[in-house]
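ERR on first pass: missing label on line 2. Operator R.T. fixed the label and resubmitted. Corrected input:
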Amino acid sequence: MENVFARKLQNAGPLGAEDMARLEMVISDPFDLAPREDVIHHGADPEYVHLVMRGMACRYKILPDGGRAIVALMLPGDICDLHVAILGRMDHSIGTLTDCQLVKIPRETIDDLLHNYPRIRHALFWSTLVDEAILREWLVNMGRRRADHQMAHLFCEIHARLQAVDELHDSLMPLTQEELGDILGISAVHAQRVVAGLRHLGLINVQDSRVSVRDFDALSAFAGFEADYLHLGETANGNETRTNA
Amino acid sequence: MTLFFFDISDGGYATPDTTGTELCDRDEARKAALAVLAPIAQENLPDRLECPVTVTVRDEEKRPIFHASLTLVEDWID
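pass 2 clean. output:
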């Protein structure tokens, strides 16, 4: 099996042969989950950290009126919740958006990776910091960008993140307008209108309710998207940007 | 759940809804239609708003069942 976890972590810098061998063991027992199923529920005290190998999952909160806010997307190679190994009880839920393949990583394995594999520890720390940077960018997005720029920015981010782990494939993003609305804090009807607008401008394609980026440079310019916050292809000894990142 | 379609126009640009949104009933559809007017008007303010912003709701058979519009009136008074 292709180790998308290792590909993701290599964005933080090179890994050694022993690191790669250890990461192969980590992903040796994946399982599948259908779309819109909970991986961990708010209030749970999980024994495992989850890793997405395929598909798309999200971090979300349910509001008292039944509304949902999606506060993070987990794509292939992303660890859902490294911090549950430290924080204990979940303060939000994690669920699948699409068909997913996941791996359960026991807390002891996380401890082993952190204590005995310094390059992996560095990469996990990097991934946690990048998650924070993404959350910062989402705050800016929700607070200060118009809905069409927000939506375009989100598509650019997903495109760049999938590309960084070689998972872009046909580049279709399997998100419904409800899910897009829950990510951006707008209604599903508004999301539909914004997607139609971006399509009208020739920036994206829409097929069977799935979106693909038609012109990444034009979409980036429209959104004011700068990929620096994803920290892709930076190495510990300099900021050497990978050409395909 | 029923599928409703929301055709939205801000005066300058009209989007016929080809996807539709699943909602409980007509009343929910009305609420969803009203809720989308203000954000669209706001995005186009101050100088891109060609009034009025309108929304037409169509039912599963694509028949129009509801219409709403939001108009901004502004004038210098000196």
